[in-house]
Design goal:
CATH topology of the largest domain: Immunoglobulin-like
Radius of gyration: 23 Å
Structural class: mainly beta
Distance between the termini: 73 Å
Largest sheet: 10 strands, mixed
Strand content: 35-45%
Amino acid sequence: MKIKSLIFSWQILLVLTLINSVHAQISNKVNKEQIKTVYLSQNTANELIVDNLCLDIERQGNINLFFDDLNLANTNYFLRIIHCQSDWKPSVLNEIEYLVDFNDIPIRYPEASMGTKMPYKQYKISLPKVKISGNYIAMIYANRNKRDTILTKRFSIYQNEINVGAKINFAKSNQLRSTHQFIDLNLGYPSNYLINSDENLKIEVRKNNQPKNLLPKIPTPMVQAIERRMTYQFYNQENAIPGGNEFRLIDLRSTQQRLNFVGQINTLDRYFEISIIPEQVQGNYSYVQRPDFNGAFVIANYENPANPLQADYVWCTFILKSRKFEDEKIYVNGAFNSYELNHLNQLQYDETKGTYIGKILLKQGIYNYQFISSNPQNYNLEGNHSETENYYEVLVYFRKPGERYDSLIGYQKIQFPL
C-alpha cells in the first residue's frame, strides 16, 4: 500500500508540474551566473545585437545562438525549441507540427577564449528551421536533463499575410505634446480571411526591441468589410506612448586606452576594471539629439577586431550622480541584460559621495544603457521627450479558425522620426 501511495503521489506531482509548465509564461532568463553574453546573431558585419529578435519565415537558416560559460567545465549542453502562443505560454503543438528537423540538438565543439585574463568557453548553435509563424523559445539545458534549464531566449517568426499600416506621430494633445508619441493603427486583410471583428486577433506594440507591450488595451476596431480594412480609433489617448530619451553609451572595446565615456582603466592580476565617466540625471534637461543603438550592443575588441574570441570580460563600474530616491531601486539596463531589473544590475547609493554606483561584468564591446527606477513613473533619471528617436514594432497575432495556436501574420517596423 505504501508503494502504491508513493507512486500515486508521484503521478499527481508529475501532472501538476506539467500543468504548471504549460500555463507558465516563459521570458528571457539566464539561470546560472557563470553563463554570460547570451544573444541571437544573424552573422552580419558589425552586427547590432538586439533583444527579442523578430524574423521573416523566409529568411531562416542563418540565425545562431551564442553564449559564454565562465566555469570552463565540460558540460554537455542541448538546444530545445518550444513553440508558444502570443502570451509566451507554451502551445499544445507537438514538435513535429512546428519543426522541420529534430529537437533536442547537442551543442558540440565550444571554442575557448584566446589571451583573455578571464577565460571562457563560447558555445554556438544554429537555430533549426520552423514550419509555422509565431513565438518561440530557444531553451538550453544541461546533461540531457530538461529540468536543468540553463537559459531561455525568446524569438519570433512572422509571415506577412496582412498589411499593417501603423504610423507614429507627435502627441496631439497639449498635455502630452512635449513628452509623448502617438501611434495610429489600421490593418488590411485579404479576401480569404474571415475577420469580422477583433476576435482571436491580438496586436502588440513594442519600442526599441523591449519585451513590454505598450498598448495592452486596444479598442474594438471599425471593420470596413468591403475594403477589408480594420481601423482603430483611440478616443482617450490610449495610443500615447512616453517618448523617453536617447540611450547612454559606453565603449569597452579596449583595455589599453580610454575610448568614449571611459573614465578610468585599472589592470589587475585576474581581470580589468573600467569605470565610466560619472553621469548625471537627465530629467530636468531639455532634449539633446545624439546617436545611439536604441538599446542594442556590439561585441568587439579594439586591438583585435578580427577575432571575437579575444574579447575579454571586464568589470564595468557605472556611476550616477544623484540625490537618493527614497523607496526606489535604481538599475542599469539595456539589451545586454534583456532589460531585466535584478540584483546583478542594481546600483547602490553611496551617501558620502552622493552617487549611485555598481559593477557589472560585461564582455568587451559597445553598450547602450539607461538608468531605470523600480518606480515606472520616475522620469527624472532619463527624461521624457516627444522628439526622442525610437523605433517601434507592431506584431499582429491571429488564431485562425480551426487552429490550436496563434500565428504571427503581420509585422511592421517603424522608425520615428524619419
